[in-house]
Amino acid sequence: MLTISIIIPTFNEADNLPHLFAHITGLNPPPQQVLLVDGGSNDESFKLVQNLIADVTRDNLSDIDWQVVKSQAGRARQMNKGAALATGDVLLFLHADTKLPAQAIMDVKTATQDKKWGRFDVRLDSPDWMLKLVSKMINLRSRLTGIATGDQAIFIKRDLFEQIGGYPDQALMEDVEISKCLKTIGKPACLTTKVITSARRWQQHGTCRTILLMWQLRFDYWRGVPTDNIWQRYYR
What we know:
By secondary structure, the protein is an alpha/beta fold. Helix content is about 45%, strand content about 20%. The protein contains 10 helices and 8 strands. It has an 8-stranded mixed sheet, sandwiched between helices. Helix 9 packs antiparallel against helix 10 (about 225-235).
């Protein structure tokens, strides 16, 4: 049976990390390995992860091989750093504010018996009807285009990930670019079980405004605007 390494890029996620650890330890079955890759947090995230790992290791609360490392800033660089240290047959890339379904590891193992890569459906953690519709549209678009977003917990067989050279070293849209590369090799496994991801950005900036911004950024990327420029607009 294939083994799974979960790779989690983190940056200033101190408030969320205890919840993340509790969630990962509750997966059944558990992953073989979890690598948290910090991109230069200034909110004690790295120290907190070290303490959390020490707690679960000391108290024998988990059979998971937990590791935390530092990396240059940038989600693509962080995920590539984690992938270079991973030992699993399959790499599952998880955002720190996204929760996997309880049976996610078995779902991935089953899917990668036939497919070399894939992703989950996604649900934003809000009862707002517009955000429920946004979730449905993300899943439909992904299924039709074969393009996955990072919020959908992309998973890739490690040998394939190494074959394509990992994530492209760019500031944003690394998920779109790697999906475009991967789908030339094979169609993704589109799992209908859902990951639950934070709606905080949508709630902070407004649903309609965020939808418009996302489409503008995708259009800019399609027409060749440098990702550094797109990144500045996304995070401003």
